[in-house]
Each structure stands twice: as C-alpha cells, then as structure tokens.
C-alpha cells in the first residue's frame, strides 16, 4: 500500500527518529524534528492512530540470553494439502523459537528465522516439531555463522 498523502517530510523525520529510539521523550523528539512539543505530540499520536507505528518493543540480545544459534529454515509443503496451510501458519505463529515467517516464491513455500539454544536444540525443533506438522513435505536449514546486519528500521526517504 502506498503511503498516505497525509504523511509529509516532518512525519517521516518523526518516524525515522522513533525507529532509532522508541523510548525517546516527546520533548527530545520535538527538538530532533524541530517542532514544538505540542505539535510533535499531535503528529506522533496521529501517526500511531493511522497505523504507521505498529508497536514498540525492546530488542533483546539472543546469545546473551542463551539462544546462541540462529537459522533460516526453508519449508516445503506437500502439494494438494491446502487444508493444512492455515493450520501450519497458526502453529508457526505460536512457536516461540520462530521469530519471523514469510510465505515466499521459488523452490520453497516458507522461510522462517529460528533461534535455538544450541545445534542440538535446533535439530530437535526442526525434526521433532516443525517437520512433524501436517502438510510439511520438507525442511532445509542454514545456520547463521555471523550476524552482519540486523534491523527492523525501514528506509524513510522523503
């Protein structure tokens, strides 16, 4: 969906600053985008109400919390099992190990980003849980060796 015509360069600056620091005070945000605090607060709330800001969250350090393995998992569904697709999607949504899941084009049906304590835990999850879901035909994984860039920030160009 293209951006609403009601979003302008100032709104984009507000959104860009919020991506950098979701806990920024209204005063500091207003200073950063060169608005009065009242004007900034009105714009900020409008952007939230219009759905430009989905939510605020803290980004945690997975390895520090004992989740030392990140893998990208490609899932192929069995052909002709369209009934299992929604069940698969719901089950994946409920799995804490799955951070992201996308339906994709190409050789696979889904790509998942999965975190695990170690390779054994990843293997147990892939073979004992994910591959056992109804309609799943195949699971292939690539273990992340080094994180080069990880961000949820969107490119906000005027």
Report on the architecture of this protein.
The chain is an alpha+beta fold and 158 residues long. The chain folds into two domains: 9-49, Winged helix-like DNA-binding domain superfamily/Winged helix DNA-binding domain (Arc Repressor Mutant, subunit A); 63-143, Alpha-Beta Plaits. Helix content is 35%, strand content 19%. It is built from five helices and four strands; from the N terminus they run H-H-H-E-H-E-E-H-E. The protein has helices spanning 9-20, 26-33, 37-49, 82-93, 119-128, and strands spanning 69-77, 98-103, 110-116, 136-143. Strands 2-3-1-4 form a four-stranded antiparallel sheet. Helix 1 (9-20) packs across helix 2. The protein starts with 8 loop residues before the first helix and ends in a 15-residue tail after the last strand. The model has no long low-confidence stretch (mean pLDDT 94).
Please specify the SSE layout and strand pairing.
Layout: H1 9-20, H2 26-33, H3 37-49, E1 69-77, H4 82-93, E2 98-103, E3 110-116, H5 119-128, E4 136-143
Antiparallel strand pairs: 1-3, 1-4, 2-3
């Amino acid at each position: 969906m293209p951006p609403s015509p009601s979003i302008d360069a100032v709104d984009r600056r507000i959104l860009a600053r919020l991506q950098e620091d979701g806990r920024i005070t209204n005063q500091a945000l207003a200073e950063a985008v060169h608005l009065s605090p009242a004007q900034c607060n009105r714009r900020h709330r409008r952007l939230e109400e219009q759905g430009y800001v989905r939510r605020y969250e803290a980004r945690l350090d997975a390895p520090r919390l004992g989740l030392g393995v990140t893998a990208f998992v490609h899932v192929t569904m069995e052909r002709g099992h369209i009934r299992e697709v929604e069940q698969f999607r719901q089950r994946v949504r409920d799995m804490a190990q799955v951070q992201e899941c996308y339906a994709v084009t190409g050789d696979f049906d889904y790509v998942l980003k999965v975190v695990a304590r170690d390779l054994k835990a990843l293997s147990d999850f892939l073979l004992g849980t994910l591959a056992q879901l109804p309609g799943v035909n195949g699971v292939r994984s690539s273990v992340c060796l080094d994180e080069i860039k990880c961000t949820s920030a969107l490119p906000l160009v005027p």
